[in-house]
Automatic annotation (TrEMBL):
Domain HAMP as annotated: residue spans: 180-234
Ranges for domain Histidine kinase: 242-454
Organism whose genome encodes this protein: Neobacillus rhizosphaerae
UniProt gene name: arlS_2
PROSITE patterns per record: HAMP, HIS_KIN
InterPro entries on file: ArlS_N (IPR041610), HAMP_dom (IPR003660), HATPase_C_sf (IPR036890), HATPase_dom (IPR003594), His_kinase_dom (IPR005467), HisK_dim/P_dom (IPR003661), HisK_dim/P_sf (IPR036097), HssS/ArlS-like (IPR050398)
Spans traversing the lipid bilayer: 12-30, 155-179
Keyword terms of this UniProt record: ATP-binding, Cell membrane, Coiled coil, Kinase, Membrane, Nucleotide-binding, Phosphoprotein, Transferase, Transmembrane, Transmembrane helix, Two-component regulatory system
Protein name, as recorded: Signal transduction histidine-protein kinase ArlS
Length: 459
């Protein structure tokens, strides 16, 4: 069943239930109060009769006077113990026949249903004792057909049924309107999703009114999700095209040297050596590049960190020792405080530091300095070199994927332009920051800011 039909049906049934309940209560309360009022009026009349008429007088006197109190369709009786009727006046014989006189010592009232010409009719009977001092002198009984009540009852019932049906009708119309209003954005969303499914192209929902309700939140969330999806798709296709472009150059080199080898064989030994050398170095480059690609793909996933306590001082000392041994470069570590402990993924932080030192070594020939500092919130790592520096207008681009300042030079140094991009992604995962200050010709300083208490990256 469609949600609109469900909402419509439920609201209507609920409305009907409430209306029937309320109307029943109204109906019975009306009947009760009307009968109560009639009852009070009859008791009042009975009291008046006993005040005005001396029931010990002769039969003709009593009955003559009682007649004055008769209304349409009523009877008045004086009854003695054992239900012995001693006086009775009536203008409705049928009525008085149907209701037998009853003696009572206490005040009482009752309603009786009797059959009449047009269906049933209510009769109200009240009885009060006649007392002379302490002695009971019988009881007075008055019975009256509640003619008006039946008519009013019918009218009231008709009105209530009419109101109930009207409410049900309004509820159907209102329910349909409400259901349509609620369902419109959802239908829009379903339509958009179906279009996405058919075409495979992410598409946003058109939000017509700013209703600020849950449905709009749902549509906005959906749109944000589509935005992210689109962004990711663009990133992905950009990456594929950038990566293919990057792989194309070394592959072209390999292919052309392989062609030379095929044409000339190994006759020209010098040429063959050069070709093999070039093929080997380009193949190594491709291998390194593919490893970096894998690294990058892993970093796109946000749950890749293995967080532990890391002492930056000992970490830097061990990295520097390894690099100094391999590259025979002067790298100096400065720090005033030890240990400097942060919560981070040690391998990833090590990777960032190596990326920075690798750049410093590639783009400078003099000493390289590493400074470790700490402020209230951050551990700060500076890597400083006195090399060629980066032109000011290039600095904003150097974190982009595959971006290299001097393509020809980078080719020689073997860079693919991914190092700083990876470093930035790792810093982002650690909720840290990376900043670069550089002056062309005099050197570069890269600063890493890592939060000391990194509780949020553990979540
Ligand atoms: N310390 C530095 N001095 C001068 N130029 C730098 C320095 N660090 C980075 N650059 C410039 O920024 C560019 C991007 O650096 P990045 O580390 O991302 O790539 P890469 O070093 O070329 O290659 P990869 O690190 O992927 O091997 C470099 O090509 C280089 O031009
Ligand atoms: Mg680099």
């Amino acid at each position: 069943m469609k949600i609109t039909t469900k909402i419509n049906l439920l609201t209507t049934v609920w409305m009907l239930f409430i209306m029937v309940l309320i109307n029943t209560v109204v109906f019975f309360l009306f009947m009760k109060t009307t009968v109560n009022m009639e009852e009070a009026a009859l008791f009042q009349k009975a009291g008046d009769i006993l005040k005005d008429i001396d029931t010990n007088q002769s039969s003709s006197y009593v009955e003559e006077n009682l007649k004055d109190y008769l209304t349409d369709h009523s009877f008045i009786r004086i009854i003695q113990p054992k239900n012995k009727v001693i006086h009775e006046v009536t203008n409705d014989l049928k009525l008085s026949k149907k209701i037998k006189g009853k003696y009572t010592k206490t005040k009482q009232a009752q309603t009786r249903l009797i059959s009449a010409e047009n269906g049933e009719e209510q009769v109200l009977v009240v009885r009060i004792p006649i007392n002379n001092g302490n002695q009971s002198n019988g009881s007075l009984e008055i019975g009256e057909r509640l003619m008006g009540l039946e008519a009013r009852k019918e009218l009231l019932r008709a009105i209530l049924v009419f109101c109930t049906l009207l409410a049900a009708l309004l509820s159907i119309i209102g329910g349909r309107w409400l259901a349509n209003m609620i369902m419109r954005p959802i239908s829009n969303m379903i339509k958009t999703m179906e279009e996405i499914e058919m075409s495979g192209v992410p598409k946003k929902i058109n939000i017509q009114n700013e209703t600020k309700d849950e449905l709009q939140t749902m549509a906005s969330t959906f749109n944000r999700m589509i935005d992210r999806l689109q962004e990711n798709l663009e990133k992905q296709s950009q990456f594929v095209s950038d990566a293919s472009h990057e792989l194309k150059t070394p592959l072209t080199v390999i292919k052309s040297y392989a062609n030379i080898l095929r044409r000339q064989g190994l006759e020209n030994k010098e040429m063959a050596d050069e070709a093999i050398q070039a093929i080997h170095s380009e193949a190594t480059r491709i291998q390194k590049m593919t490893e970096t690609f894998l690294d990058l793909t892993n970093l796109e996933k946000e749950d890749v960190l293995d967080i532990n306590e890391v002492n930056l001082v000992s970490l830097c000392e061990s990295i520097l020792k390894q690099l100094k041994d391999v590259y025979r470069r002067e790298i100096i570590l400065h720090y005033e405080e030890s240990p400097i402990i942060i919560k981070a993924d040690e391998l990833k932080i090590k990777q960032v530091i190596i990326i920075l030192l690798d750049n410093a070594m590639k783009y400078s020939n003099e000493k390289i300095e590493v400074f470790l500092e700490k402020d209230e919130k951050h551990a700060i790592i500076h890597v400083k070199d006195y090399g060629i520096g980066i032109p000011a207008e290039e600095i904003e681009h150097i974190f982009e994927r595959f971006y290299r300042v001097d393509k020809a030079r980078s080719r020689k140094t073997g860079g693919s332009g991914l190092g700083l991009h990876i470093a930035k992604s790792i810093m982002k995962l650690h909720k840290g920051e990376i900043k670069i200050k550089s002056k062309e010709g005099s050197g570069t300083k890269v600063e890493l800011f890592l939060p000391i208490s990194n509780r949020n990256i553990e979540d």
